[in-house]
Amino acid sequence: MKPRSSSWDHTSTEIKTRAAGLFRMRLDFFCLICLTLAAFCLVPLPGAWAHAPGSQPIGIDARIGETIPGDIVLLDEQGRAEALGAIIRKPTILVLIYYTCDRLCPQMLAGLAAALPQLGLTPDKDYQVITVSFDETDTPAKARHLKRNYLKAIEQPFPAGAWRFLTGERKNIQALCAAAGFTVRKETHGFAHPTALIILSPDRRITRYIHVSKFSYGVAYPITFPAASLSRALTEASRGEASAAPKSWFLYCFPHEPEKQQRFFRILMMVGGGTIIGLALFFVYLSLSGRKPREGKRS
Amino acid sequence: MTGKKGSARYTSFYQEPGRYKGILSWLMSTDHKRIGIMYTLALLSFFAAGACAGLLMRLSLIAPGKILSAQTYNEVFTVHGIIMIFLFVIPGIPVAFGNFFLPILIGARDVAFPRLNRLSWWLYLTGAAIIFLSLSLHGRPPDTGWTFYAPLSVESQANISVAVFGVFVLGFSSILTGLNFVTTVHRLRAPGMGWFRLPLFVWTLYATGWVQMLATPVLAITLVFIILGRFLGVGFFDPAKGGDPILYEHLFWIYSHPAVYIMLLPAMGIISEIIPVFSKERIFGYTAIALSAIAIASVGSLVWGHHMLTSGMSDTARVIFSLITFIVAVPSGVKVFNWVATLYKGSIVIVTPLLYALSFILLFSIGGLTGLIIGALAPNLKLHGTYFIVAHFHYVMFGGAGFAILAGLHYWFPKTTGRMYDEVKAKIGWLVLFIGFNALYFSMFILGYQGMPRRYFDYPPQYFTGHLVSTIGSWILAAGLIIIFGNLVRSAFKGKKAPANPWQGRTLEWQIPSPPPAENFEKLPVIRGDRYEVKRKG
Question: How many domains are there within chain B?
Fold first, then answer.
């Protein structure tokens, strides 16, 4: 055991002074980082407000007995323009959704695909299905993709012309939604909208709304349409008989991304980024300052 | 315990006179070895408490409703989870063996910040005390499961805030330990101890230290959000107020998946120390094992989403998380292959630490490979809510980290206590534990595959046989634990005196007396040439 030398004492004091200085410097640096981060958090985020959803209410204003204008022009799956007057010439199930939806819309289409073979009616002769996207950015290519998917989901031969997936320009879509009494709202990620099937007679009159009012969790088809009532609705539509407006409530399909969450994520990102940068600096500091083996108290 | 080393007499750290006497000489100590011993004893006490809760759950499951009511069952499985995860297995190896052996293994006299180390220990005790307070306070013990999922944890009438605050305090203990260990490895390596001469256990503690510093703050802030939600109604996780419950799951698993590696990496480190010693072979692929620890720590921080494959994420996110989960299996596989390659053609000595190490390889491989089954998207959808997950989890946590802790306890027992344990009893204990473990948890794989949902206190009659086998397994496992710890406790007082190097180990802890003196080394060792070879200065 070596007795403690005076040079060791000297070095020790020097190290202590240097360490205290370094500590103060690091403390200042730390405070600076905290203040900068806090300042960032207070800056309003333009992006967050720009996407603020509109405040107009959404819902269904039942327009039983009214006629959908025949001059509304929509694009078919191949991108060809066609007027509704030419498309609707038989009892029709009209589905208003948007094609990028990953919430209720695909479940509605799946439920419909499961119900169609059980209707006891001949597709393309007794009825047809028309799906229209109210999102003007949806393209015929997306529509083709969906069509392929849901025709396959029917799991038996189904005439391709009897289920059409249409897209359109904003003014035509708005005219269709207005005529059907559908109010939808653009949100940050998608749309908030009501869910229902609209039954049209061969002369484009609205004869019935079938509301989607139940969503079952944990089953293969969360949304189902009873074949009997769908079939009856189509038969009535073929005779032009309008029913009363439904009294049942309906489900809303909406994306859940509140606008303030964007700001929250931004704060998280900055704090997380700060932590990673802080630790990276710590690593650099440790690596640069190198090894400092210590003698023990007794050495 | 005054021992002899060569010709010079020395005083072991147990006998070293300090400023304080009695219990304070321990609680106020900054000696990394004393802190390590205190952590070990605390950890094992909490493990005993958690195991009792586990046994009670298993007992209840062979006669649902007769022993525990549904509410009590929820409370017992939550308490089992909180104690085992936050008080035992996460702090586990770093605080117990890391504290005791990290400075010795790198040739240092203590950790870089001894007083910070003592603060970590006090914080750990405080956190544990707060958690136990949440069980005994007026009101119900926590009943949400150890994951504290929102919105249940925000709305539950149980003492969630207290328990969550306890975990928050434990988090700080963990961060400070990580910081301390990382600085120690950078700063205090003995002369000549280059990065690629570090023992592999040190490499894993180093990687773990970074994970602790990086991931634990996320848990801390998440838990603060829960407390704010409960007291001030701030709706971070409440959709009605613009929050999102999925956000909680993300934040929670951003910490809690890396936490799996906080538990497992040092466990792998212990196995990497034991296998070369008892196969009398140089470890195969040192660099690959060392770097795979870093790879696991970094890639393992990006896989948290696989806990949420059924929670409602986009398909893109699910596919990516599933893919990274497969990637993180690669470095773990590298380690397993290297261990087996080390054993190949070695002069294997079958002693208890090696038996635990070998069973670690087997059980961890089962845990890891079933992890790939549930990490793949399609099977996960079927298995996620079932006992399959419980089985996988326990094979990794207990079969992995738990068996490594037992391996370490036996391997370093002569060094920490200065006495030898009884080899025959230790082997019997291992065998009983191994049988009990597999009966208890393998039956859960089958139950899960058959569709038994996890967290339920009751079940339809067709699952009875599986539950019965599992519960009988829990009794065998408990018997094994009693034999093992009975043997260790008895040997700590009455065992034969241990020599400095009973296993002919080549790392530094075996070059100093058992138990070590207060500052480990008379003179700091100088490492030259061969990786673990030690020559004294002067």
Answer: 1
**Residue B6 domain-assigned (yes or no):** no
Whether B14 is covered by a domain: the verdict is no
* Test the A interface: residue of B519, B520, B521, B536 with most A CBs within 10 Å: B519
Q: Is the model's pTM score more than 0.95? A: no
The CB density around residue B503, as the number of other CB atoms within 10 Å, is 18
What gap in Å lies between CA A14 and CA A17, rounded to an integer?
5
- Alpha carbon separation from B357 to B204, B399, B415, B417, B480 (Å, rounded): 16, 10, 18, 21, 17
Tell me the sheet residues that pair with A82.
A74
Q: Which of A44, A43, A129, A147 is nearest to A88 (CA)?
A: A129
Q: How far is B35 from chain A (nearest CA, A)?
A: 18
Residue B490: which CATH number? 1.20.210.10
Q: Is residue B203 part of a domain?
A: yes
Which residue, chain included where needed, has tokens 């859940």?
A256
Bridge partners (DSSP) of residue B453 are B386
Residue B274 falls inside a structural domain: yes
CB contact under 8 A, B217 and A275: yes
Nearest CA in chain A to B106: A293
Domains detected in chain A: 6-43+259-289 (no CATH), 59-253 (3.40.30.10)
Name, in order, each residue with C-beta under 8 angstroms of B317's C-beta and a sequence gap of 6 or more. Answer: B305
Contact A261 B243 (CB under 8 A): yes
Neighbouring-strand partners of residue A118: none
Give me A195's structure tokens. 């869910």
Residues B402 and B89: their CA atoms lie apart, in Å, by 8
Instruction: Please check whether residue B238 touches A, CB under 8 A.
Output: no
d(CA A233, CA A120): 13
Two tokens, residue B32: 């990394």
C-alpha distance from A291 to closest chain B C-alpha (Å): 4
- Output the CA angle B287-B89-B24, nearest 5 degrees: 105
Measured distance CA(B441)–CA(B438) in Å, rounded? 5
Residue of B nearest to A293 (CA): B188
Angstroms from B189 CA to nearest CA on chain A: 7
Which residue bears the tokens 């069952």?
B73
Two tokens at A127? Answer: 């009825």
What is A88-128 written as a DSSP string?
A: --S-EEEEEE-TT--SHHHHHHHHHHHHGGGS-S-BTTTBE
| Distance separating alpha carbons of residues B172 and B343, to the nearest angstrom | 39
Q: B340, B289 in Cβ contact below 8 A?
A: no
Tell me which residue range forms the domain holding B375: 31-535
pLDDT by residue for chain B (538 residues), tens only, comes to 444 444 457 889 998 888 888 899 999 999 999 999 999 999 999 999 999 999 999 999 999 989 999 999 999 999 999 999 999 999 999 999 999 999 999 999 999 999 999 999 999 999 999 999 999 888 889 999 999 998 899 988 899 999 999 999 999 999 999 999 999 999 999 998 999 999 999 999 999 999 999 999 999 999 999 999 999 988 888 877 878 889 999 999 999 999 999 999 999 999 999 999 999 988 999 999 999 999 999 999 999 999 999 988 888 899 999 999 999 999 999 999 999 999 998 999 999 999 999 999 999 999 999 999 999 999 999 999 999 999 999 999 999 999 999 999 999 999 999 999 999 999 999 999 999 999 999 999 999 999 999 999 999 999 999 999 999 999 999 999 999 999 999 999 999 999 999 999 989 999 999 999 989 998 888 887 655 544 444 3
Question: Quick one: three-class SS letters along B206-255?
Answer: HHHHHHHHHHHHHHHHHHHHHHHHHHHCCCCCCHHHCCCHHHHHHHHHHH
